Amino acid sequence: MGEELRVHCALYFRVPAVLCSSPKGTFLLAKDKLEKGMVRALELALLGPAHGVNPQVGAVILDEAGEIISEGWHLGSGTDHAEVMAIKNLSGKLAFPFPKGLTAVVTLEPCNHTGRTGPCAQALIEAGISSVVYAASDPGDASSNGAETLRAAGLEVLGGFLAEKSEQQGRVWLTANKLKRPFVTLKWATSLDGRAAANDGSSQWITGAQAREDVHARRANADAILAGTGTVIADDPELTARKPDGTYYSHQPLRVILGERDLDPNCKVFNDKAESLHLQTRNIHGALAELWARGIKHVFIEGGPEVVSWFERLELVDEYLIYLAPVLLGGDRVALRDIGVGNIAQAHRLEIFEQHMLGNDLLLVARRS
Fold first, then answer.
1. Which residues of the chain have pLDDT under 70?
2. pTM, two decimal places
C-alpha cells in the first residue's frame, strides 16, 4: 500500500495506518456500511452472558454491497463463538465455502487458539470469507494474533475499527485479561455528606428502590460479590442478586468473604442460595490471584468501609459505582477510611463517565483519571 493511500485509510477509519494494510491494498466497502455492521455486532454481543470467563462478542457477515446477511454472538463457555455462529447461520443459505467478496465484522479480534472450541480465525478462512474487520485486539497470550493468521491466509484485515466503543463495552473482560486478575468494581451507597450509615450503624435504606434494583442487576452480571468479615458480622447480608419481586436471578455470583475472623456457619452468606468462599486473609493481591485462578474475571466489592479502603489504598479498583442519596446523616460512619492520602496533592482523582438518575438517587460511574 502506498504511503498516500495508507494515510488516507488511517484518516478515513480513524485507526492507525499500520492496521489498514492488507494484501489487496484497501477495503472495498464504504465506511458507513462497515460502521453499521460494527454497531449491529456490538448490539449482538450484549445478547451473550456478561459473567463467565469468556468475552461478550458479536459478529455479522456483510455481502458485497455491505448488507448484513448473517449474525452471530457468543452464548458462553463451550458454545460456538460469534464468528462460527454467523458462519453456521449463513451456511444454510449459501454453498460452503462461501463465494468471494464477503466481509466479517467482529467486535473482538478473531481468536487464534483451540480451547473448548476451535480457532475462529481458521473457521473464517475455511468459510471463504474475503475480508475481516474487527474492533478491539485480543489481549490473551494464547488466543491473540488471529489477525496475523488471517493475513497470512490472504484475507484483507482491518483492526481497531470503532475500537473505543468496543473497548468501553468490553472493558471488564479486556482489563481482566490484560492485568491477569479480576476486574474490580467498587460499589458504595452514601448520603450526600459521604456517610454509609447513621451513627447507630443503621443503613437500610439510604437509597431508594430503583437504586437497589440497579445494584442487584449489576451484581447478577458479576462473577463474584465480595465483602469483609466485619460487614458479615454486623449486617448478616445474603450477598445474592435478587429481582424487585424478591426472586433470584438465574446466575448467582460466588460469595467471597475476606478477613481473618471466624464466622458463624448460620450466617445468611452461607445459605444455599449461592456458593460461598471464605478467604481468611488480609492479603488483597493474594485473594485476587486465587479468584483469578478459579476463573473469576469480575469481582463486585460490597464493603464495608474497611475492605473498600484496602482496595482503594492499593489502587486495585477499576470502576466505581457511587450511589448518592439526597440525605444528610452526619456522624462518623464514612464510606471510606484511611486510603493513604496525606495531603491534597495525593488525592485519588476520578473521572466520571456515566451519570444516571434512579428515582431520587444519583448513580455516578467513575474510574481513576
1. 1-27, 114-117, 140-144
2. 0.85
Helices (H) and strands (E) in the chain, counts: 11, 13
Question: Residues 188-243: pLDDT tens digits?
Answer: 899 998 888 888 877 778 899 999 999 999 999 999 999 999 889 988 999 999 99
Sign, Cα dihedral of 221, 38, 121, 169: negative
158: closest CA among 333, 296, 30? Answer: 30
108-148: per-residue pLDDT in tens? Answer: 999 987 666 678 999 999 999 999 999 999 886 655 688 99
CB 57 within 8 A of CB 109: no
pLDDT of residue 251: 95
Burial of 344 (0-12, 13-18, 19+ CB in 10 A): exposed
Residue in the block written with cell 443459505: 93
Please tell me the predicted confidence (pLDDT) of residue 17.
32
Examine the residue annotation and report whether 213 is marked as an active-site residue of this protein: no
Marked catalytic residue, from 67, 71, 83, 109: 83
Ramachandran bin of 101, using left for φ above 0, alpha for ψ from -120 to 50, beta for the remaining angles: left
H or E segment to which residue 163 belongs: helix 163-169
Q: How far apart (Å, rounded) are the C-alpha atoms in residues 328 and 191?
A: 6
Q: Which residues 6+ apart lie within 8 Å of 364 measured at CB?
A: 320, 321, 322, 324, 352, 354, 355
Joined together, the cell numbers standing for residue 75 give: 452464548
- Give me the residue label for grid cell 464495608: 304
Asked if residue 361 lies in contact with residue 208, where contact means CB atoms within 8 angstroms, the answer is yes
* Distance of alpha carbon 222 from alpha carbon 183, whole angstroms: 10
Reading the block at residue 320, the C-alpha cell is 466505581
Candidates 105, 110, 40, 51; CA nearest to 80 is 110
Question: Are residues 287 and 257 in contact, defined by beta-carbon separation less than 8 angstroms?
Answer: no
Cβ of 272: how many Cβ atoms within 10 Å? 6
Count of residues making up the chain: 369
Characterize 12-28 residue by residue with b for buried, 16 or more Cβ atoms within 10 angstroms of its Cβ, and e for exposed: ebebebebbbbeeeebe
Task: For residue 277, give the nearest of 247, 252, 306 by alpha carbon.
Answer: 252
